[in-house]
Amino acid sequence: MFVDSHTHMISRTTDDYERMSAAGVVACIEPAFWLGQPRTHVGTYIDYLSMICGFERFRAGQFGLRHYCTIGLNSKEANNEELADAVMEILPRYALKEGVVAIGEIGYDEQTALEDKYYRLQLELAKELNLPVMVHTPHRDKRQGTLRSMAVALEHKLDPSWVVIDHNNEETVRDVLDRGFWAAFSIYPFTKMGNERMVEIVRNYGAERIFCDSACDWGVSDPLAVPKTAELMRRAQIPEEHIRKVTYENPLAAYGKSGQIKEEDWLNPPSIDQRTLYMGNSVLRGGQAPRIEEGKRGVEDNLKIS
Amino acid sequence: MTNAGNAAFDLLRAWVARVVSNQGGVWFEQQIALMCSGPAEKELYLALGYAIRRLGKQDLALTSEDLVAAKTARPGWNPSDWSVDQAARLSFVLASDNDDGARFKARLEQLFRTADVGELITFYRGLPLYPHPKLHVARAREGARSAMQPIFEAVAHRNPYPMEEFDENAWNHMVLKALFVGSKLDPIQGLDHRSNRALMRMLCDYAHERWAAGRSVSSELWRCVGPHADSEALIDLERVLRTGTLVEQQAAALALTASSLPAARELLAKVPDLAKHAAAGEPGWTALAAAS
User: Fold this and answer.
1) B232: preceding bond cis by omega (within 30 degrees)
2) Which of A129, A258, B66, B178 could form a disulfide with B62 if both were Cys (CB 3.0 to 4.6 A apart)?
3) Shortest CA distance to B119 belongs to which of A64, A129, A276, A24?
4) Which residues contact B138 (CB under 8 A, 6 or more apart)?
5) How many domains does chain A have?
6) How would you class B183 by CB atoms within 10 Å of its CB: exposed for 0-12, middle for 13-18, buried for 19 or more?
7) Exposed, middle or buried by CB within 10 Å (0-12, 13-18, 19+), for A67?
8) Mean per-residue pLDDT pooled into runs of 10, chain B (292 residues)
9) Of B140, B87, B27, B117, which is closest to residue A94 (Cα–Cα)?
10) Same domain, B161 and B237
11) Structural contact between residues A3 and A41, judged by C-beta atoms closer than 8 angstroms
């Protein structure tokens, strides 16, 4: 069983859901983000947030995946002050929805004053509502941006064990672990982490407070990144319990602090969910072994993502 | 708050109290008191937001006496598969009513607009309990258009609201959509009472479309065709009698018994065995729905 803790499923197809389910992904988390281009009205933001905790959750359930989300104003759209103020006003209405496991993904993009302002406001919101935080670290000036994200979180007195720093790489992992934060890695081709590099991270740092996700979205990305990375780790003789932590237990522990994601959700779902929302995972239902092969699509061995 | 003495509201409160922990029960009654006092919008959102966290989402597990009480409180009300969070959330919504129809509607609309999927199911299930029923027709129709089957069924199944408030076009499209998305017809209240000639025609056309594509149709479809069958529809029913599975044949025979056309009786005469059972109401539409 796998948990993919960072997926933008609204951009993915039903094929993706089928392959994820067949490969053993039982739960996915959809962080609120931009859509590849900025929104310009709070109304579209409202509909987006309703969509990720509404229709997308229903859609995932049909394929046997439990779907969760995080709620937040992302760093890119934080630079539109009029929009940002309006979004901040509606966030409390969504942050307590069922299955909202964190405030996120928030943080810095270009590290502007406005990004800083709304990042701080949302850290306070997370504290007020007792929710974990998912931090998106910037693509550019990454190390400084990551260090600053953590410094500001600590300045606002957040418990680092309630904060996930996402999109890490070899240059940031040490600082994140040393400060007591969760270190997540997005296995995303070209711009973020490759999964052979991920294997080396786990070999060097172990599995404590480390996990990986796919961050699959509208760009070239792979919704099977987590199961493929698990298989790659297995072939590299990484201990089985480390693999389980990095691909299942750790994201569950980190976001489980919200009280909104539990193993029972897929192992023994409430009967009201079984009647309405959740059709059950085919792997759990049939008892068969997960099939990584589902993702191969005729390629001899495409486990590698780089 | 005008729900003092509202029997449905009182039942919901009692059912919630019965299944939650002491702590949850105290929180629930505090929220009810707050909602009755004319709360700020934010307080309503927080109560709705915390409902599952504080009370869980277990089934209410109502007894047959409870269901009788429900029907007495509000004719047609059937909360047989409701969960505690649904009952609690609807209690909050009802408690916040201050007999201002426009205000209640505006608030409800906001709740729908920002609802998660579980809340959508809840708020649509609540339709028969809301004050000023005529004000909620457009919202109910929106639910009946949903691409999410559990949302559609929250409106269409075990809910007396559509039967009471939908006009013929809305009604007909809800029934057709049920077939289209693979939902059962039997849990739709008023199915026989609201059947009509236009619906009969829509359903027969739908059957033709399905047959042309080499697909089958639910045998439940014929239930709404029988009472209004014309000579064309009888040709369709004859085809089902001739070529259908046993369940489909039983459905066609039952449908024909509901027709007053002499030609319908002639068709039944050709299948005496099926006709005999159909005349005795066997196996019945509910049983056929389960077998479809």
Assistant:
1) no
2) B66
3) A276
4) none
5) 1
6) buried
7) buried
8) 72 97 97 92 92 96 98 97 98 92 94 95 98 96 95 98 98 97 97 97 97 96 98 97 96 97 97 96 94 88
9) B117
10) no
11) no
Q: Is the model more confident about A274 or about B167?
A: B167
Assess whether pLDDT exceeds 70 at residue A287. Answer: no
| DSSP classification of residue B281 | T
Q: What's residue A294's pLDDT?
A: 55
Name the residue range of residue B218's domain: 197-291
End-to-end CA distance of chain A: 23
Domain membership of residue A294 (yes or no) is: no
Query: Residues A236, A196: contact at Cβ < 8 Å?
Result: no
In a shared domain, residues B128 and B30: yes
Q: Does residue A290 lie in a domain region? A: no
> Residues with Cβ < 8 Å from A61, sequence gap 6 or more?
A67, A273, A277, A278, A279
Supply the DSSP symbol for A248: I
- For chain B, how big is the Rg over CA atoms in Å? 22
Amino acid at A39: R
Range of the domain at A179: 2-271
B114-155 pLDDT, tens per residue? 999 999 999 999 999 999 999 999 999 999 999 999 999 999
* Mean pLDDT of chain B, nearest integer: 95
Q: Which of 65-124 (A) contact B at CB < 8 A?
A: 90, 92-99
Chain position carrying tokens 């909360």: B79
pLDDT tens readout for residues A40-90: 999 999 999 999 999 999 999 999 999 999 999 999 999 999 999 999 999
Of B50, B115, B121, the CB nearest to A96: B50
Q: What is the residue type of A68?
A: Y
Residue B61 within any structural domain of the chain: yes
Chain A residues in contact with B121 by the CB 8 A cut-off are 276
Structure tokens at A119: 């990042």
Q: Give all strands of the β-sheet with A182-186 in edge-to-edge order.
A: A2-4, A25-31, A66-71, A100-107, A133-136, A163-166, A182-186, A210-213
Give the residue carrying structure tokens 């708050």. B1
* ipTM summary value: 0.89
Residue B177: how many other CB atoms lie within 10 Å: 16
Instruction: Please tell me whether residues B146 and B50 are part of one structural domain.
Output: yes
HEC-encoded secondary structure of A13-74: CHHHHHHHHHCCEEEEEEECCCCCCCCCCHHHHHHHHHHHCCHHHHHHHHCCCEEEEEECCC
Q: Read off the tokens for B109.
A: 């609309």
Chain A partners within 8 Å of B85 (Cβ): 272
Do residues A142 and A161 touch, judged by C-beta distance below 8 A? Answer: no
What is the rounded distance in angstroms from the CA atom of residue B140 to the CA atom of residue B152? 9
A26 neighbors A266 (Cβ within 8 angstroms): yes
Side chain identity at residue A11, one-letter code: S
Beta-carbon separation of B118 and A275 below 8 A: no
Among A99, A271, A277, beta carbon nearest to B59? A271
